[in-house]
Amino acid sequence: MWDALKARAEAARDRRIEDLLAEPGRMETFATTVGGLRLDFAKTNIDAETLQDLIGLLEATGVAEKREAMFTGQPINETEGRAVLHTALRNIDGGPVTVDGTDVMPGVLKTLDRMAEFAGAVRDGSFKGQGGKITDVINIGIGGSDLGPKMGAIALAPYHDGPRCHFVSNVDPADIADALRACDPATTLVIVASKTFTTIETMTNARTAKAWMGEAVNDTGAQFAALSSALDKTADFGIAPSRVFGFEDWVGGRYSMWGPIGLPLMIAVGPEAFRAFLRGGQAMDRHFRAAEWRENMPALMALVGIWHNQVCGYPTRAVLPYDNRLARLPAYLQQLEMESNGKGVTMEGAPVETSGPVVWGEPGTNGQHAFYQLIHQGTQVVPCEFLVAARGHEDDLHHQHLLLVANCLAQSEALMRGRTLDEAREKVAGKFEGAELERQAAHRVFPGNRPSVTLTYPQLTPEILGMIVALYEHRVFVEGAVLGINSYDQWGVELGKELATALGPVVESGDAQGKDASTAALVAVLKAHGL
Ligand code: F6P
């Protein structure tokens, strides 16, 4: 099956995407819609037969069965013996979801209500700091305990009517110092977000925040809340159970923004907007679970990804939101996709030929003035994923939005069309001649035939954001399922953590005996500079 697909990729090398687009019916087959969200993957070099073969991959690898196992709480995270049920967190008006015979929904809904009650109290001032109404919230967390709520808070800025939100993640003291400097401890709520409540960066920053609070506030613990699965550890830290919002181990860190980890977002935009975000995710779940593969947006996105990465061998993909408030979406997706599918072995421990791609990106139009040069003329093909809304939230500046959209559409068109040598010659014909004309023209050639997909939506509302995030989550699931990867563990982060712990005393003392020559020299030079 893979060999057949690779043969198709080989045969497609000289085929132009523009020619595929000229075929009747292309837009019916190579676009799909869920609610207001539409995926256009017509500007890829996938033809009807290839799509059929790709769908065959889903069938051959049992993706439908695996999908059902996920939604029904089977322990599909086999290396950790856990279910994968972030979908339950947004199943707000769905039926029961059982894990080991127990319906988890009453607990999920109860926690959601508690979050709403607390967020409401912080927002309306009935929950107070020593100095009165809370003006600032500092969320301390890293990875999945930071990226989702931070990305969401930026994305939903037009809905932000709660206190200011600051996100501190890095153990670099600059991060927490900047946040603390911007806040008054007497009117600040500190949220410590950590599934395990052991992550060194988070716990170090949490202690720093506690000391800062302790200098100004009598009852330090009263202005702390915790989001965690480790309730014993939140108690040890001195946070009262009434301000602890727990979740189960079947919520993976990078899939957790739908539950307690979303609390700072809920405080920022309010419980109603947060519920709308959940409803968006739930709508995508329903679609993913029920739609035929040919219309199934996450499955089709996954197949496009597999075609580009595993079949064609393009090593990266760029996420390019023409929606400035999705500025942190690429960073969010880096964890979601690369921590999930950046694995060297299958579930059974056998080698994986090509794990998931490098994911990167920046909002348009900024990226156009930075790295698009390489995307258009570099020797590597970078499949691009554009996101664009029909409307922004700035009605009075809609004329600028039109320019934004024109740029987005122009980029995908330019990537596909390119510019031939003859066209380039025409461009410079009046200015140069002879050998110089040839030389100048060569620089203006664009190979074109570069693939992209485009996601469009009416406006970046909470519901649409929920759909987009759930779409990418399920896309990761499908890619992992086809590759036979466990998308829900992250053993690859362990070694660096262990070595960092061991290096703590070394950087403190400067005694690097037993370390490799390079590490020892790095320690020595940093010590010489005042470490
Ligand atoms: O870096 C590994 C990781 O475990 C991520 O998967 C997770 O999102 C992050 O650390 C933070 O973990 P925690 O929420 O337990 O502090």
Task: Write the CATH fold name of the domain at 86-275.
Answer: Rossmann fold
Count of distinct strands: 15
Quote the beta fraction. 5-15%
Task: Please work out how many helical segments DSSP would assign.
Answer: 22
**Which CATH C-level class of the domain at 86-275 is it?**
Alpha Beta
Q: What is the alpha-carbon Rg in Å?
A: 25 Å
Structural class: alpha/beta
Task: Pick out the low-confidence regions.
Answer: none
Keywords:
alpha/beta; Rossmann fold; 6-stranded mixed sheet; 5-stranded parallel sheet; 15 strands; about 50% helix; binds 6-O-phosphono-beta-D-fructofuranose
Plain-language structure description:
- This protein is an alpha/beta fold and 531 residues long.
- Among the domains are: 86-275, Glucose-6-phosphate isomerase like protein, domain 1 (Rossmann fold, 3-Layer(aba) Sandwich); 495-528.
- Helices cover 48% and strands 12% of the residues.
- It is built from 22 helices and 15 strands.
- The chain has helices at residues 2-12, 17-21, 26-29, 48-60, 63-71, 86-89, 105-124, 147-155, 173-181, 200-214, 231-236, 263-269, 271-290, 297-311, 329-341, 372-377, 398-417, 421-428, 434-443, 462-483, 494-509, 517-528; strands at 31-34, 37-40, 98-99, 102-103, 128-129, 132-133, 136-140, 164-168, 188-193, 224-228, 244-246, 316-322, 358-360, 384-389, 452-457.
- The strands form 4 sheets. A 6-stranded mixed β-sheet has the order 1-2-15-14-12-13, with helices on both faces. Strands 8-7-9-10-11 form a 5-stranded parallel β-sheet, with helices on both faces. The protein has a two-stranded antiparallel sheet with strand order 3-4.
- Helix 4 (48-60) crosses helix 14, helix 7 (105-124) crosses helix 12 (263-269) and helix 8 (147-155) runs parallel beside helix 12 (263-269).
- It is globular and about 80 Å long.
- The N and C termini lie far apart (56 Å).
- 45% of the residues are buried.
- Bound molecules: 6-O-phosphono-beta-D-fructofuranose (F6P).
- 6-O-phosphono-beta-D-fructofuranose binds next to loops.
